[in-house]
Every structure is written in C-alpha cells, then in structure tokens.
Amino acid sequence: MRRNVIMIISALIFAAAIIYVIKQSETISLLQTLLPEKIAVFKNVHMSGIEASSEAWDIYAKEAWTGRDKFVTSFDHVTNATITKNGRIMIKGLVARRARIAKNKDFEIFRSIEEDKNDRYLRVKVDFGALANPPKQEKNFSSLTADYIKFNPDSKKALVQGNIRILKDKLTVRGEIATLDLNLNIATFEGRSSFTKRDTKLYSDSATAFFDTDKVDLSGSVEVEQKNKKASSEAANYDDNSKTIIMTGNVVAVIEKPKSLMKEESAGKYKSEEAKKALITRTHVKCDKLIIDTESNDAKAYGNVLVIQTSKEAKSDQAEYSEGNAVIVMTGNVYMKKNDDWITADKVIVSVDKEIFEATGGVETTFKVKKGSR
Prior knowledge:
This protein has a six-stranded antiparallel beta barrel with strand order 4-5-8-9-7-6. Mean pLDDT is about 75; it is low at about 5-35, about 260-265 and about 365-374. It has helices spanning about 1-25, 30-35, 130, 265, 275-280; strands spanning about 40-50, 55-65, 70-85, 90-100, 105-110, 120-125, 140-145, 150, 155-170, 170-180, 185-195, 200-210, 215-225, 230-240, 245-255, 285-295, 300-310, 310-320, 325-340, 340-350, 355-360, 365. A hairpin with a 2-residue loop joins strand 9 and strand 10. The chain has a domain at about 1-35. Helices cover about 10% and strands about 60% of the residues. By secondary structure, it is mostly beta strands. It is built from five helices and 22 strands.
C-alpha cells in the first residue's frame, strides 16, 4: 500500500516537472496553438472600466472575451458604448462589429473582421469640443463612420482609416486616412478628401482641420464646386466662421452659367440677346487669389485677373461681383476686349440688368477700321 502511494506521488512530481519544463521552453508556442484563442468568454455583456473611482468606459456587446496574454479585452457585435474623461462624455452611441480595449488604454474599433467580412458596421458620435485642449464648454456631438478607429484618451491621439465620413453640424467630411492630435486641436487628412457644406464642395490631396477655430487648410489639386461654378488652385483656406473660401496659387475658375453666381430673380433680369447668350457660355477666370463667400455667392478676384468669355477678354488688378445688385466692378489698370475693340480704364462698372457699360478714370478706346470702310 505504501509502495503504491509512493509511486503515485512520484508520478505526479514527474508530470509536474514535465509541465514546468514545457512552460519554460520555447516549445510553449506549440502548446498554445492547441489551446483556444479565447480563454474567457461572456455572452450578452455589460462591462465598465473604472479609473480614479469613476467610470472611464461603458460597453454593451453580444460577446466579450479575453485572450491568453490578458492584455486585450475584445467585444464582438457592440450595441452601445460610451467613453468618459474627467466626468465628461467624449464618445457615445458606439455601434461596431468589434471593439478592443488594451491595458495601455488603446481603444480600437473595427467595421468588419477577417473571419466575417460580410457583417460590416461602425458608427459613433464624438464630442470634439470635449476632446479639445482645453475642452470647450459647449457640447456638440458629430457623427463619425470609418473602417477602423484607434484612440487613446490619455495621449488624446487617434487614427481613423477607410471610408471616413464625419458629419459636424451641416459640414460633411470624407476621406481615407485621418490623424487626430487633440493636444493641438487638429486633424490631418491624407489622400483625396472632401468637405461639403450646403451647395459648396471642396476637394484636396491633403488637408488640416482646426477644431478650435473651425478652419481647414487645403493643399494639392484643390477644387471647389458651387452649383455650376468650379474653381481650382494649389491651396485654399476654408473658414466656417466667416463663411469664406480663399484660393491661392494658379487659380482658375470655370463658370458654366454666370447665373450660378446669382439667385433666380437676378438671372431673370438679363434681357438682351447678348446677355442671354452669356448665360449658356462658359466663363474662365484666372487670378492670383479668389475669395468666395459661401453664403451670398459673392466673389472677389485679386492679382493679375483675367476673364475670358468667347471673343471677349478682361484684365484688371481686381474684380468683384455683387449678387445684390448684379453688378461687376473691375478696378486697377482695367483692360477689356471684345473682338478687335478694347478699352482701358481705372474702373469699369458693368450693370447687366440695366445693360449699362460705364468706364471711368483714364478711359482710352481703341478700335480697328476694316479695309475699304468709310
């Protein structure tokens, strides 16, 4: 009997020794491949993270599990989630195919996963004011969708990738890669991105958005679309507060119909056949700087202004179109040409509705007389 007990104890010690050797050896990876990835699985869960005696995050999901390294907790089919910092909600209403929270507080969100690509969804509401440095008092949540989001509330930095769509008030932002540095209150967009508000659309190869000032700097093949008007430049600045777009560097604007710059009642004032014909004629405008008012549709051009429409040309230091009275004012070394005739002046006022052309200051008219005419 005693001998059997000794044999059993010896066998247990031997087995324990083997297990210890296996765990301490490099062959542990082979053993791990035989074990399931999920070591603890929870169904229909509600889980909260606590930091400094207050709730830091709150998640509802159909399934939650922890891996072997216990470094990351994963949530599948997230139905709702909230992230709070210093007692203020920063992110709410999160719905995603998968979310992961690491011990270093990295928060990752996925629209889809490799093993289930057909099930795709990710949407969340973000209070960028709460994330700003310092935080804004006003609470204003923006809708955000993407393929992937990675965020750390301590570093206040985030990476957003794939099919990005941000809806902030009436501004819609689309892109492929965005890096957010909330310490500097900026978001940098890489690749072709677009910014749309009402009837105005802006496109660029790269852009930087400033949360604290509601401005966007755009560069690289910048394009602006406004109804039947299109403009391109090397760079532009959009200011949502002043409702202006300032375009610089090889500015070229193409207007399919001049009435795109005015309301319907103003367009109806065009009576002459020449004016009506102009409504269906493309107008090209080149200048050093173009300022577009996104509210009134007024436009101002500065520096080496050149306007071309069929056989007519106009040059000046600057030009300004006013929607209210349908008047174009060109000032500073004005040069206007139609067919073979041209006029130079300090100032030219064109009133389309009254069909009046008025030139003032140093007016000089030149015209060619055809051979044989008397």
